[in-house]
Every structure is written in structure tokens, then in C-alpha cells.
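Input (structure):
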């Protein structure tokens, strides 16, 4: 048992860690101006659904698993839920459902297969994963080695404490099929153009919003790289302080969801663990309502970036917030 875990606390042990499993919550806000990204669960909707199913608040920490699950053993009886991509789950060797409340007996194990769809899934336990709060969040920021469990992804043998919990029953014990997200291999991702779209030629802009882009295996919590028809840049003499890459600018801040094109042709969508600024032009930004959608994509997913207006983006944000709120009703 970890030296930091009191002996009277309920815990679970990581038997195998999977490919990349971290502790995440809704994120670390208020420090972007000093270079700390917001972090948090990449698929916020799935993460919150898991918390709802076990009777947690929306702020409790969960496990975010990428492609492969962390197999776990619980020392005490626990209430859990698994949401996100389609995956086989067993509890002490017996099949268990996803998107539903599941009871684990004392000493029980929870094991996972490989994801059949989506890139990530989430494990919530009643009481939450009770790691220390760092700058207002329990989320893991591996690059900064802070938050989560010792500031890193989980390893075999780690023992994590479970919070006391409210003891209250969840609002519901299953999320209806109609309220579960899809994990399609073809996506339309809505974007707002700017701030530096003027740097693209008309052909470059057309390729970005009319071409088909494929997600490459270079995709993690910081960003996702796509390949496709490429873009073109308006020729100019680079200003003092900018690099020689055609997409270089004098440094500027990056919004979460910014699309930058290092190397000049293939775009990267910055996600929750990305740096907060740098020297690449942000030609567009994925709207906040579609950031979960981007996080669900697997390599090979065909993507079209669809330009929308600010009014459409704000309407989509309201619809997304309503969908999340409906989980808790």
C-alpha cells in the first residue's frame, strides 16, 4: 500500500496500467496565462456520465484510459461505472455492462479488453479517485509532472485512495442509448476561422474546409495531427522575431482547440494538455462543443472541418451544455 494512503481508506490497486491511464477531472482553470493548460478529461461528456452513474458530483476525479484499460483490484466493495468507447468489461471474471452502474465486491477485480470504437474510456468510482488537489484540480498534467497520482500516468502496483462519497444513489443507473455519443470513423468537426486565416491563400482556405483529412497515429492529450490535401500560404517576408516556417508568427496565445499547421501543410488540433502559446499561426479553432468529438477519434478517422459562424458556435455550446446538464436531471 502507498505510504500516503491511510490504512482505513478504501483503495484500489492497479494490476496492469494499460497504454496510458491518468487521473482526470473537469480541469485546472485560471492558470492558462502562466502557461498551465486546463487539462481534464478529453471527453468531458463521457467522464461526467460516469460520475453521474455512481452518485458523484461532476467535479470528482475519474480514470481516463487510452485504447487499453487499467485492470484494477478493489479492497472494499465499490460502485463503479465505465463510459466512453465500446469495450468489454468483466468484474471478477463475469461480463459487466458499460454506461451503467456496476457493483464490485470486496476483493473484486475489474478487467478490460481492447477498445472496439473510440480512443478513450472512463472509470468512475463512488467517492471519486481521492488524489490531492493541485491548483484547484486533481487532473494529471504529465508534462508538468503535477496533479493526479504523483504527476504521471498510472503504473502496475499503484494503490489509489477512494473518497468517502456522499452515500447517495445516482440519479439513474443507466444512460439511454440515445444519450450516448457515437464513435464514428467519419466526423464533421465545426470550426471558426481566424485569427490568422488571412495568411492562407484562397486555395489553402478551401482545402482546409472542403478537403478530407485523416487523423494520424500522432494524437495524444496535447494535440492531434491530420494528413490530407495540404494548405497554401500567402507569400511574405517573415517579420522580425518569426521563424522561417511559412506558418511561423511572432509568438501569440493559443486557444484550446486551435488549429495550427507546423511545417506549412498538415494541421494539428491542440487539445486540453497543449501549451498555451507559441510561434505558429492559428488559422482556425475547433468550437468548444466539438472538442469531445475530436477526442473520440481514432487514427484513420476521416474528418471534414466545417466552417461555422460565431452565432452557430454559441448555439452549439448551449446545446452541448444542455446535453451535459440532462445527464444530471
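Output (sequence):
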Amino acid at each position: 500500500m502507498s505510504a500516503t494512503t491511510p490504512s482505513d481508506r478504501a483503495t484500489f490497486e492497479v494490476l496492469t496500467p494499460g497504454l496510458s491511464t491518468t487521473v482526470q477531472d473537469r480541469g485546472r482553470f485560471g492558470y492558462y496565462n502562466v502557461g498551465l493548460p486546463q487539462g481534464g478529461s478529453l471527453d468531458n461528456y463521457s467522464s461526467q456520465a460516469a460520475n453521474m452513474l455512481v452518485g458523484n458530483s461532476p467535479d470528482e476525479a475519474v480514470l481516463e484510459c487510452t485504447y487499453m484499460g487499467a485492470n484494477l483490484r478493489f479492497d472494499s466493495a465499490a460502485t463503479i461505472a465505465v463510459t466512453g468507447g465500446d469495450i468489454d468489461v468483466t468484474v471478477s471474471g463475469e461480463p459487466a455492462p458499460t454506461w451503467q452502474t456496476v457493483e464490485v465486491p470486496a476483493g473484486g477485480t475489474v478487467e478490460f479488453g481492447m477498445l472496439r470504437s473510440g480512443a478513450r474510456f472512463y472509470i468512475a468510482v463512488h467517492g471519486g479517485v481521492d488524489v490531492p488537489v493541485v491548483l484547484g484540480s486533481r487532473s494529471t498534467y504529465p508534462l508538468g509532472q503535477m496533479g493526479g497520482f504523483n504527476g504521471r500516468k498510472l503504473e502496475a502496483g499503484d494503490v489509489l485512495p477512494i473518497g468517502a462519497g456522499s452515500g447517495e444513489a445516482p440519479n439513474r443507473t443507466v444512460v439511454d442509448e440515445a444519450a450516448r455519443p457515437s464513435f464514428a470513423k467519419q466526423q464533421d468537426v465545426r470550426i471558426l476561422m481566424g485569427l490568422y486565416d488571412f495568411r492562407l491563400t484562397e486555395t489553402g482556405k478551401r482545402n482546409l474546409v472542403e478537403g478530407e483529412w485523416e487523423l494520424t497515429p500522432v494524437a495524444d492529450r496535447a494535440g492531434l495531427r491530420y494528413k490530407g490535401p495540404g494548405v497554401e500560404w500567402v507569400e511574405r517576408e517573415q517579420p522580425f522575431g518569426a521563424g522561417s516556417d511559412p506558418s511561423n508568427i511572432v509568438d501569440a496565445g493559443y486557444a484550446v482547440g486551435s488549429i495550427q499547421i507546423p511545417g506549412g501543410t498538415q494541421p494539428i488540433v491542440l487539445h486540453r494538455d497543449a501549451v498555451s502559446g507559441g510561434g505558429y499561426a492559428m488559422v482556425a479553432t475547433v468550437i468548444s462543443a466539438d472538442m469531445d468529438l475530436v477526442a473520440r477519434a481514432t487514427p484513420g478517422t476521416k474528418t471534414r472541418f466545417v466552417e461555422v459562424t460565431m452565432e452557430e458556435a454559441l448555439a452549439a455550446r448551449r446545446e452541448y451544455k444542455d446535453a451535459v446538464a440532462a445527464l444530471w436531471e
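Notes: The chain has a mean pLDDT of 94. Residues 310-327 form the longest helix (18 residues).
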